[in-house]
Structures are given as structure tokens and as C-alpha cells.
Amino acid sequence: MTLNGDAVRALREAQKLSLRKLACLTGRHRSHLSRIERGLAGASSETEERIARALGVPEAAITHKETT
């Protein structure tokens, strides 16, 4: 599974959360979250879990299966 940055951004914006607030909720740096949303950086499984928890959604809502 890989993190879907577009889904993270859409959910964050729908909840009217700033990147700064999401960073506070996840314990991750704002610039790293920005890169994740733009598809420029990956995320560890722990970070995926923290983002999902902060957004109040299951991890499946922010990930997609890797295709080989």
C-alpha cells in the first residue's frame, strides 16, 4: 500500500484543517506533509497511521494498492 497524497489533501481540506494543524496532530513536519500531498515524498507505515488517525478515517481511505 502507498499513501495517496491527493486523498490526504482532499480529506484535510474537507475538514478545513491547515497543513500546520495536521502537522501538530501527527507529530510530523508541515513541509514533509506538503511533499507527501504533492506526491514528492513517501510515508512510513507509522506516518500513514498517524495521518489516518488525525483525519479520523481508516488507513484504506488514504492509501492505494501498489501495482507491479
Describe the structure.
The structure is a single chain. It contains four helices and two strands; from the N terminus they run E-H-H-H-H-E. The chain has helices at 5-14, 19-26, 30-37, 45-55, and strands spanning 2-3, 63-64. Strands 1-2 form a two-stranded antiparallel sheet.
In short:
It contains four helices and two strands, in the order βααααβ. The protein is mainly alpha-helical and 68 residues long.
Strand order of the largest sheet: 1-2
CATH superfamily: lambda repressor-like DNA-binding domains
- At CATH level 2, the architecture is Orthogonal Bundle
Total individual domains:
1
Q: Per the principal axes of the C-alpha atoms, what is the gross shape?
A: globular
Order of helices and strands: EHHHHE
Mean pLDDT: 94
Q: Major beta sheet, specifics?
A: 2 strands, antiparallel
Give the helix level as a range of percent: 40-55%
Fraction in beta strands: 5-15%
Q: Tell me the CATH topology.
A: 434 Repressor (Amino-terminal Domain)
Radius of gyration: 11 Å
Q: Return the structural class.
A: mainly alpha
Strand tally is 2
Q: Span from first to last CA?
A: 12 Å
The level-1 CATH class: Mainly Alpha
Number of helical regions: 4
Extract low-pLDDT stretches. Answer: none
List the helices and strands and how they pair.
Blueprint: E1 2-3, H1 5-14, H2 19-26, H3 30-37, H4 45-55, E2 63-64
Antiparallel strand pairs: 1-2
Helix pairs in contact: 2-3
